[in-house]
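Per reviewer request, we include the raw input and output of the structure prediction for the construct analysed in the revised manuscript.
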Amino acid sequence: MPAQFIPEITFPGIQLLPKETTSSIISIKRLDGKVAIVTGGARGIGEATVRLFAIHGAKVIIADVDDALGISLANSLSPHVTYVHCDVTSEEHIQTLINSTLSNYGKLDILFNNAGVLGNQSKHKSILHFDADEFDQVMRVNVRGTALGMKHAARAMIASRTAGCIISTASVAGVMGGLGPHSYTASKHAIVGLTKNAACELGRYGIRVNCISPFGVATRMLVNAWRVDGMGRGGGGR
C-alpha cells in the first residue's frame, strides 16, 4: 500500500512529528470512537497531541484561551476536531467544557490536562527575590486548573460508567530541583502529588490517572523563555 502522510508540525528549525509514516501504522486507529479533551491544545505539546489523537480516530475538543490558534487548528483537521474557549482557572469554564462535550458526544473518555504557564521568574532568579503574585498565578493555572479538570472529568466518567483516562502534564522539574523557576517547579511537584492521590481514589471506578514528566521540549513557551533567560548567557524560558 502507498505511504500516507501526517500533517507536519513545525517551529522554527524544529519538526515535532515525522512528516511521513507508513499506512500500516496509521491503519491502527488506537483511539477510534474515543472522545478526548486537550487543554492548552492550540500549540506546543497540546497541538501535537491533538493532531496525533485525531490521526488515531478520536473526536477531539481543543480547549484553550487563544481563540485564533485554536480555531485555526480545528479547521485544519477533521470535522471531528472542535474548539472551545476555556480558561482552566475558571471552574465555570471547566464545567461548560465538560457539559458541552457530554451534550455533543454523550461521553468523555480522555482528559489531557496540558494547559500551563512557566511564569516570568527566570530560572536563575534567587528565592531571595521570590514573587508571591507570580507564584499565585502559576499555581492557579498549573495546579488549580489541573485539579478542576480532574474533578469534573472524573464526575462525568463515573456518572456514565466510563473507564476513562485522565492525563496531566507535569515535568522533570516536578521530579528534581534546579531545572526551572521556583513557582513552576513547585507547581509541577504539586501535579505529580495530585496525580498519585487521584489515581488511588479513582482506580476503583476503572479510571486511570497518570502524568507525563517531559524534559525540555522546544515549544513556543520554552523557546521564548530561553530567549528571555539567555540560556547560554546571551540574554542580559510548554
